[in-house]
Amino acid sequence: MSRNPQTVRSERTRVALRRAALARFQAQGVEATSAEQIAEDAGVTLRTFYRHFPSKHDLLFADYDSGLQWFRGALAARPDDEPIVESVRAAIFAFPYDVQPLTQMAAFRAAELDPDRIVAHLRQVESDLADAITEHLRRRVGSSERTLDIVVTARCIAAAVFGAMEVWMLREKRSLADLAELSHATLTALETGLGVDGLFRHY
Amino acid sequence: MSRNPQTVRSERTRVALRRAALARFQAQGVEATSAEQIAEDAGVTLRTFYRHFPSKHDLLFADYDSGLQWFRGALAARPDDEPIVESVRAAIFAFPYDVQPLTQMAAFRAAELDPDRIVAHLRQVESDLADAITEHLRRRVGSSERTLDIVVTARCIAAAVFGAMEVWMLREKRSLADLAELSHATLTALETGLGVDGLFRHY
DNA sequence: TGCTGTTTTGTCAATATTGACGGAACTGTG
DNA sequence: CACAGTTCCGTCAATATTGACAAAACAGCA
After folding, report:
1. Which end of chain B has fewer CB atoms surrounding its CB within 10 Å, N or C?
2. CATH 1.10.357.10 fits A58-202, yes or no
3. Which helix (H) or strand (E) holds B192?
4. Distance (Å, rounded) from C-alpha A161 to C-alpha A155?
5. Where in chain B is the domain with CATH 1.10.10?
6. Is A187 on the interface with B (CB under 8 A)?
7. CA A89 to CA A38: how far, in whole Å?
8. Which residues 101-120 on chain A approach chain B with CB closer than 8 angstroms?
């Protein structure tokens, strides 16, 4: 009885599927590629395809998830006594935007994708980010449960980061440096305190 | 040329579909009901069904959307010089939980539904809420665009409300009054100022 | 009423997804 | 190697969704 058996084979087909899919996507576009083609290219059945990925489009977003993994690690590496906002900021600035396939795959095929799908996925990533922060805080304070203040704090931080992303997405010229800058600004607004001389002063 | 023609017929089938669906769902459960059955009961084709609702499950969540409509109206009715957090709080407390089919339909069939589906929808509602608040603020300040501080402010408020909901959902005993109380608390935390003597003091 | 442009449906045919069941491959052991 | 337990995969058969195209219903107008 081993806790993680046969993950070898499974992982192999997962990789095969991903590779096959990206090749097709690149060559003939996402919508023009059928799930069946991907499965065949990878040498498995259609059903097996769906055993590894919840949907055809999830293959596109798989890269985002690896980014999230990276983020969790980055957070964990920060000192425990550092203010949480500072930890998040540091992680965001250290993010390997150019290495992570995140930017590439997602961006260059984005135009072809249904905007709703993209937005929905961004929501999911934001949610996962909030979750990662929540867990990080929970671990740091040694609490066994997700308390109200931890949850809300984490969500606000995620909201700040993705609020920056929303504004960034609406711009014509978008550089990754700008995105980091915007995040920096919104996180600072949080630190400064929304109610005192921060954002809420205006509303 | 009228801006909203023939919406009469369309609305009629939409209602028929909704009615048929809810009846089936109630009687035999959501998963055991096929989209085709609903369409037939409503006297239309399967294709027409999907012209009115993006998916079978959206029929369950349609009620949530009407709740959002209500919220928008409630926000608009608040005085323009009232602090935004206060406006939101007031709207939340005034929400007709018992009247809106929100609570009923969603809650009692929730157990049968895929949790992921529910979570995804809650994310969507949170996003829509943030959007509603953003638009409200934008109108109030007369800005033509969604500025960084408006967007982030709105998102944080939504985050506070849904953070409260997350914690509420994890409890065994859940009363609507408790939910309102939790929201009240998290909104106050925002007002107090995260960075000064609010949540961030602890992290 | 008859004409015309628009909106809503029906029809047909691909795909996309998912549940159920049985066989194959893999791991740890004796 | 044979055996037992587990995990992964193939097969089959429903559904769920979506795109393309044409007919039907409806609104405004001569």
Report:
1. N
2. yes
3. helix B176-192
4. 10
5. 7-52
6. no
7. 39
8. 119-120
